[in-house]
Write a structure and sequence with these properties.
Structural class: alpha+beta
Largest sheet: 3 strands, antiparallel
Radius of gyration: 14 Å
Number of helices: 1
Number of strands: 3
Shape: elongated
Helix content: 25-40%
Oligomer: single chain
Amino acid sequence: MDARQGKTLMDKSNELSRDLHALNDSGAIKGIDAREDGVYITYSPAGGADTVTKKLGDVLESTD
């Protein structure tokens, strides 16, 4: 991993952390699941809507 990849990974991690904290402020997060094809979050939207599972982002791949 070079410096650019490390910065990109850190930026994505920070963005994900901010998003998760914002969702969880209302207690909406019900679970997080790391799968082979990515990371998924399960949450309950405000207003009594059905529970949703959403893929958070793409897995970064090495560009050797």
